[in-house]
Automatic annotation (TrEMBL):
InterPro entries: Tape_meas_N (IPR013491). It holds the Pfam family TMP_3. Residues 2-103 form the Tape measure protein N-terminal domain. This is Minor tail protein Gp26.
């Protein structure tokens, strides 16, 4: 697993520690919903890619990934965690929405929720 996570971190230019933390917390949160190990690895890589594509600096990436992993660990993305991610990595919110089968923010009509 360490090799797979290192490969993801290298492909996406993300911090290996933040990538590992994200994977572990994501795994804990999503396994109970039937997600496979491969799906969780795919989510981890997609999350890292969203940060890279969004032009997020390494320090902001680590901070946003920490916030996301904390939210996944608690099962809720709200308040300061949501605000931190929205400010430092807004594309990440769209990636999460798409992965969870929801409409990204830009594809919603006014007044609709995803």
């Amino acid at each position: 697993m360490q090799e797979k996570l290192l490969a993801i971190a290298n492909r996406t230019g993300a911090d290996i520690e933040a990538t590992g933390n994200l994977y572990v917390k994501t795994s804990r949160a999503l396994k109970e919903y039937g997600y496979t190990q491969q799906e969780i690895l795919t989510f981890t890589e997609a999350t890292n890619n969203a940060m890279t594509i969004g032009g997020v600096a390494a320090e902001q990436q680590a901070s946003a990934l920490l916030q996301l992993s904390q939210a996944l660990g608690s099962g809720v993305l709200q308040g300061d965690e949501f605000k931190s991610i929205a400010e430092s990595a807004p594309i990440l919110l769209d990636t999460i929405a798409e992965y969870m089968g929801k409409k990204p923010r830009g594809n919603q009509k006014a007044g609709q929720r995803g």
